[in-house]
Specification:
The complex is a heterodimer of chains A (about 150) and B (about 625). Chain A contains six helices and eight strands. The radius of gyration of chain A is 15 Å and the shape is globular. In chain A, the strands form four sheets. A two-stranded antiparallel sheet of chain A has the order 1-8. Chain A has a two-stranded antiparallel sheet with strand order 2-3. A two-stranded antiparallel ribbon of chain A has the order 4-5. Helix content of chain A is about 25%, strand content about 15%. The two termini of chain A are about 25 Å apart. Chain B is of the alpha+beta class and about 625 residues long. Chain B contains 25 helices and 20 strands. In chain B, helix 2 packs parallel to helix 21. Classes of the chains: A alpha+beta (about 150), B alpha+beta (about 625). At the A-B interface, helix 1 of A face helix 7 and strand 15 of B.
Chain lengths: ~150, ~625
């Protein structure tokens, strides 16, 4: 059963522990610019964790111009949208296409990167001190109450 | 190098020159970071007797080897200068996200020197650093400044530390604000920035921090977060921030109202119970890397201030502008909180100064003519807001109050000084210290003047004191924690001020430490520092670093002429007993106070007659050069 990262922005306090934990796990350094998850904060609006939704019809996959074996593919079975950097041409079309800003660019190498759900045990979920990021069964998301969803 | 970025940015505002210097091993290994390195730099670069508002003063902004690592509460940043309010060491510590961003850009310290001819701001974009014109920002409030800078540099993620109109107008207790609600508040750090015509520092950093032992650091911090969340103080802090302190201090008899004419058990303070405050809170926020998240955004939904929104309500400003000024109107207080944040003025100090003015008015020391028609009657929050704006603009009577309570009282005369309480020109605020002997001693010897966060023995203000046997086990002493006792206070103040000093040097928030009933103690600090930097540091090493910082700061004060005679509380709290409440009749006894001082000097190794650190003390900490300086000045 596919599980998804699901955020509850009203619980997010913008501590950015998720960003640092993600960066450490994925790159070995502490740098929010290398984190797969990031907290969007726009003026007076509440902070909002932004991370790949592993969309059913991923705009990134659609936008990718690479022909043949695509660098971005959604696995029908697991529901995971994964990035194969060795096939990537670095055109950033996927970055532009993602409505959640979930595909990011490494400031040093210029390569794109995205969330891969940490082999089914997302680091950000383990660290979030308020429970604002959860890893839930995608079917269960629909049955959550309105309050649970906001 | 791990942990530290290894670079110091020196900005000469007079000549417009920017230089990058390496961070010396001497500084980082002996003074760690933040307040430690800042204080040593200030001692080295600022000569005694200079004008705090002149080009010779430095504004030093520093972060620690833990800054920017996240995962643990290390988002704080320290700013240091010679204080225009007190004429001695001035410094202030702020949370938020500014410090980490500075670290990610690749700097441990920024040193500003000189004075710019026209308003400028510093833009740090990783390695690219430039001074930019800020003429269009001069006069703008904090949020306007953030907005314009982020728009003109084209990046919403830029972190800004800025002064508001109060700093520009050289109000002596102007603050530097970061992230809307985080303030470098006390001792007029923003005033120094204003005097240099430096409107803001904007930073964007993308380099991150490399640490020595990532796996060890990860294990440590994960466990610490869990422990912090299990601490007894966690539920209140995370839900209501520091607000419940007011209510709680009222119960234990140390809250103040009407400029400390009433103390403890004040019925009106029930207005501030957390349930009522909750009506105003909209969203909880954290500083960088903090699981405690004590900050709150608020919105006023009804009444004359309806529609006002803001950040960062907390206990100190609520107490100083609230009960201290006879103001129990929560909405008016939130409005005042927002004025302080937007105009960049210290919320604590401005409240205490206004409270004193209210009492001078009550006693006829000043009248309506002096205040240009503003009726400073207790609880008249319209008058309070009007006078606050006059202070910010340095207009009329506000110009006098903008000098600080001690200077204003001296100028007014007529016994006005009797109604204020300060140590070395910094006001005693927040709570009444007459029944808290160790806190009073801490205020008297603190290097930036009276200040709770400098080393109050926090167990003095708990509702249920530790049983003596347990206290001895945990701390090695028990009377030092009893608020009524004058014994063991030297050892107690030194212990707690070492925790506070290390917090400021490591960029750790005191609310995550054992100082405020949370999890981080000396042992945890040493483990974090070692894992992050690879430099092995044990508890003894940390205690030595704290002592080194304390002694460098003391030497800075000694050079400015401070000695034993100044290590005292001035004004009301020294002269009068507690007027009412559970601690009615308690007072600070002068002779006993001097005994506490003797003991403190003995513990820290300062001369009992003069209050000057002895040569032996300084040399044992590797500070022979400072002992030589003091000897040349004839201090031995």
């Amino acid at each position: 059963m596919a599980k998804k990262l699901f955020s509850k922005p009203s619980l997010c306090v913008n501590c950015r522990i998720c960003e640092m934990a993600c960066s450490l796990r994925k790159t070995g350094v502490l740098n929010p610019c290398k984190a797969r998850i990031w907290i969007h904060r726009d003026g007076e609006a509440a902070p909002r964790p932004m991370v790949c939704r592993h969309c059913l019809v991923p705009p990134c996959e659609k936008a990718c111009p690479v022909e043949g074996e695509k660098p971005i593919v959604r696995d029908r079975e697991t529901g995971i949208v994964s990035l194969h950097i060795e096939r990537c041409i670095g055109c950033y079309e996927c970055v532009k296409a993602c409505p959640f800003g979930a595909i990011r660019i490494d400031p040093e190498s210029g390569e794109v990167f995205k969330c891969d759900l940490c082999e089914g045990d997302p680091e950000c979920v383990q660290w979030c001190p308020t429970g604002a990021i959860r890893y839930v069964d995608q079917k269960a998301i629909g049955t959550l109450s309105i309050a649970e969803r906001s | 190098m791990y942990g530290w970025a290894g670079k110091v940015l020196r900005v000469d505002l007079s000549g417009g020159r920017i230089e990058k210097e390496p961070l010396s091993d001497y500084l980082r290994l002996n003074f760690i970071g933040g307040r430690g390195i800042n204080s040593r730099l200030l001692y080295d670069e600022v000569e005694a007797g200079i004008d705090p508002l002149g080009p010779e003063n430095r504004l030093i902004v520093g972060v620690s080897p833990l800054s920017g690592t996240g995962l643990v509460i290390s988002g704080r940043c320290h700013a240091t200068a010679k204080s225009p309010l007190t004429g001695i060491l001035g410094d202030s510590n702020a949370g938020g996200h500014f410090g980490p961003e500075l670290k990610w850009a690749g700097y441990d310290e920024i040193i500003f020197e000189g004075v710019s001819e026209r308003p400028v701001y510093l833009w740090i974009d990783d390695d690219r650093v430039e001074l930019r014109d800020a003429s269009h920002l001069w006069g703008k409030t904090i949020s306007e400044t953030y907005k314009i800078i982020r728009e003109e540099l084209g990046d919403p993620r830029i972190r800004v530390a800025a002064i508001g109109p109060a700093g520009e107008n050289l109000v002596k207790y102007a603050s530097i604000m970061t992230d809307y609600g985080n303030a470098f508040g006390k001792t007029g750090i923003g005033t120094v920035m204003g005097s240099k015509r430096l409107k803001a520092i904007a930073v964007r950093g993308t380099k991150g921090v490399a640490i020595a032992r990532p796996e060890a650091f990860k294990l440590l911090t994960k466990e610490l977060i869990e422990r912090i969340k299990k601490c007894v103080t966690y539920p209140n802090f995370s839900r209501y921030g520091t607000m419940p302190y007011l209510y709680y201090y009222n119960k234990i008899g140390v809250s103040v109202a009407l400029n400390a004419q009433r103390v403890g058990d004040i019925a009106e303070i029930e207005t501030y119970n957390v349930e009522k405050m909750k009506e105003y809170f909209t969203h909880t926020e954290a500083c960088f890397g903090c699981p405690i998240h004590c900050k709150h955004r608020f919105e006023i939904r009804k009444g004359p201030f309806a529609g006002e929104k803001g950040h960062g309500t907390e206990f100190c400003i609520m107490s100083a502008h609230g009960p201290s000024c006879g103001n129990y109107d929560v909405a008016a207080l939130l409005k005042i909180n927002q004025i302080c944040n937007e105009y960049g003025i210290c919320g604590d100090t401005s409240g205490v100064v206004l409270a004193a003015a209210f009492e001078w008015y009550q006693r006829g020391i000043i009248d309506r003519e002096d205040t240009e028609g503003i009726e400073l009657e207790w609880g008249n929050h319209e008058a309070q807001i009007a006078m606050l704006h006059k202070i910010i603009r340095r207009e009329g009577f506000g110009d006098l109050l903008a000098e600080g309570s001690a200077a204003a009282a001296r100028k007014i005369g007529k016994g006005a000084e009797r109604y204020i309480t300060h140590a070395k020109g910094n006001d005693v605020d927040q709570v009444d210290i007459r029944s808290l002997k160790g806190c009073a001693l801490s205020d008297a010897v603190s290097s930036r003047g009276a200040d709770p966060q400098r080393g109050w023995p926090s167990p003095e203000v708990v509702a249920k004191p530790l049983p003596p046997r347990v206290a001895k086990q945990v701390y090695g002493f028990d009377k030092g924690l009893d608020p009524d006792s004058y014994e063991e206070k030297g050892i107690s103040v030194n212990f707690f001020s070492s925790i506070c000093t290390l917090c400021d040097a490591l960029g750790i928030c005191k609310f995550g430490t054992k100082w405020s009933g949370s999890a981080i103690g000396f042992e945890e600090m040493a483990q974090l520092l070692s894992a992050a930097t690879g430099v092995e540091m044990d508890e003894k090493g940390l205690m030595d670093a704290a002592a080194r910082i304390n002694n460098v700061e003391r030497a800075f004060l000694v050079r400015e002429g401070i000695g034993r005679k100044d290590d005292i509380i001035h004004g009301r709290a020294m002269e009068e007993p507690v007027p009412d409440g559970p601690n009615k009749g308690k007072r600070l006894d002068r002779a006993m106070f001097e005994k506490m001082l003797d003991e403190y000097y003995e513990v820290v190794g300062w001369d009992k007659e003069t209050g000057v650190p002895t040569r032996a003390t300084l040399e044992s900490l590797g500070l022979k050069d400072i002992a030589d300086d003091l000897e040349r000045m004839g201090k031995y």
